[in-house]
Design a protein that fits this description.
Helix content is 52%, strand content 9%. It has helices spanning 68-73, 122-145, 148-163, 170-201, 227-262, 277-293, 301-330, 343-355, 358-363, 394-404, 414-437, 443-451, 462-479, 483-505, and strands spanning 16-19, 28-33, 39-41, 52-56, 79-88, 93-102, 369-371, 389-391.
């Protein structure tokens, strides 16, 4: 007997199911989760968009049908349903989760190879053709809706179902169905292109009599009287959200830096720059172990919010890690307040942190003298204009030691770096203005110098110039020694690429 699509009621109840495009997409059975946290289906279908889990099969509508390829591979058999209490981390809440456990000795595991089809009779062929034609109609609708991933999945299913037809006359049925699929795809894509063009050109829909309906679309934002007030409200909301986002990232970054300071490298030093894979694994586990504690998607709304926010929080924390690391090292300079009630405890904690950097102390002992500078590296002079000297600070000892060992860490925060860049730009602009006033250069030359054209500015082809500029950014990113800075730059490039792709698609 030829295996068709299984209904979810026929799938073993503990198997998770889901789709790429939400409730309207093809349903797949989830076999496992890969190292990147992505759900992997039983069938070989793969898509750029992650496969989202709906939960276990026993929790879904029983009449929904599984992907035809997954149907051949997914395990079946009865399950025993039990209930258990699950605590949601950070929410101080407990929910009841229904757990499905396979009944021992009754599970039927499918082989990973497709089951050989037997010869179909006329009735079976007619049913297969009817199902395929229904899928072709659905394919046209998905193309019109622009659901590319779902289109790709359904095409694969139609191809598999077509090739599975056997029996007398199959050799004639298959090419006919293939032709119908090609025509349906071509017609649907042509119609979508025309619809997109009409929407872009702002053409109004036509009535049955052929008269165009008046276009009532807004064409001038300055005439929308509600916008100024809405913009003002929106700006306040954006600023508040940005502050909360920054605070959340900083709070998590404090934990990340504590993890790094607890893991040692080959020299026995805290791996503050996170050069080792095991240190990066520690950060990955921080998020991974939290995901493991969360109930299945759809079981608790607040837990789902936490799950969806984890990746964004991880990015914010990585961005904040540089500043938090700098502040952590600088705190090694600060002696606890002797008048504080927690003085003894604070002193022990500080001594414990300083003890982690015994190698730095050996290289730069307590009596090591340095020129006195502020935290931006500017010399502090005495009344005679001479550089002053003083014993080295703990923060300088740590920064200098890590640099001497070839594993440098940032000495200034991101905000201080931006301040330096603004100051340097202002000084350069002032110097150029003086040169223009003195007649040494023209204003045009000053503007050109200030804009610092790229090395490939002689390239006349704008596409090649853009490509060269992007390649230059990638090379500069690869050369960055600070892993946090490198990861942040990578995130920025990916975000820029996504924005460019969106703009290109709108052409």
């Amino acid at each position: 007997m030829t295996i068709g699509k299984l209904k979810l009621s026929e799938v073993r109840g503990d198997v998770r199911v889901g789709s790429v495009t939400g409730s309207s997409g093809t349903i797949h059975a989830i076999k496992e989760t890969d190292a990147g946290g992505r759900n992997v289906p039983y069938c070989p279908t793969r898509s750029k968009t992650p496969l989202r889990s709906w939960g276990q099969a026993h929790e879904q509508k029983p009449n929904l049908e599984l992907c035809i390829k997954c149907s051949k591979l997914v395990p079946t058999g009865p399950v025993e349903i039990t209930e258990e209490a699950v605590e949601i981390p950070g929410l101080d809440r407990t929910v009841t989760r229904r757990v499905a456990t396979p009944v021992t000795g009754t599970t039927e595991e499918k082989e990973t190879q497709a089951v050989a089809a037997t010869t179909m009779n006329k009735a079976a062929q007619d049913k297969a053709v009817e199902d395929i034609k229904a899928s072709i109609e659905r394919l046209s609708s998905l193309i019109a809706e622009g659901k590319d991933d779902a289109v790709k999945e359904l095409k694969e299913e139609i191809t598999a179902a077509t090739e599975a037809i056997t029996g007398r006359g199959a050799a004639g049925i298959k090419p006919t169905l293939r032709t119908e699929v090609e025509k349906a795809v071509k017609d649907a894509e042509k119609a979508k292109t025309a619809a997109d063009k009409a929407a872009k050109d702002g053409k109004g829909a036509k009535t049955a009599k052929g008269k165009e309906v008046a276009n009532l679309a807004t064409t001038d934002l300055s005439k929308v009287k509600e916008l100024p007030a809405l913009y003002a409200q929106g700006h306040d909301k954006i600023v508040a959200a940005a502050k909360q986002k920054f605070a959340a990232g900083t709070d998590v970054a404090v934990i990340l830096v504590a993890i790094r300071s607890s893991i040692t490298d080959k020299d026995g030093d805290p791996d503050l720059p996170a050069k080792q894979q095991i240190t990066r694994d520690g950060a990955t586990d921080l998020y991974g172990k939290l995901r493991e504690k969360l109930p299945e998607p759809g079981e608790d709304k607040e837990a789902d919010i936490v799950r969806d926010a984890i990746d964004g929080i991880a990015t914010d924390a990585r961005r904040a890690a540089r500043t938090v690391t700098v502040e952590y090292v600088r705190k090694l300079d600060v002696e606890p307040d002797e008048k504080s009630e927690t003085y003894q405890e604070d002193k022990k904690l500080l001594e414990a942190e300083r003890a982690k950097y015994k190698n730095a102390l050996a290289m730069f002992p307590a009596d090591y003298m340095v020129e006195d500078k502020d935290h931006l590296g500017n010399l502090i002079l005495d009344k005679g204009g001479n550089a002053t000297q003083r014993p080295i600070k703990w923060s300088e000892r740590v920064f200098d030691y890590y640099e001497a060992k070839g594993k440098p860490i940032a000495r200034i925060t991101r905000a201080e770096q931006y301040a330096q860049e603004r100051k340097a730009k202002a000084e350069r602009k002032a110097a150029l203005a003086e040169a223009v006033a003195a007649g040494e250069i023209s204003q045009e030359e000053a503007d050109a110098s200030l804009s610092t054209p790229a090395e490939d500015s002689k390239e006349s082809d704008p596409i090649k110039r853009l490509k060269n500029s992007f390649e230059k950014q990638i090379k500069e990113t690869k050369r960055l020694e600070d892993d946090d800075e490198k990861a942040t730059r990578k995130d920025d490039l990916i975000s820029l690429l996504a924005t460019l792709r969106k703009e290109i698609n709108s052409i």
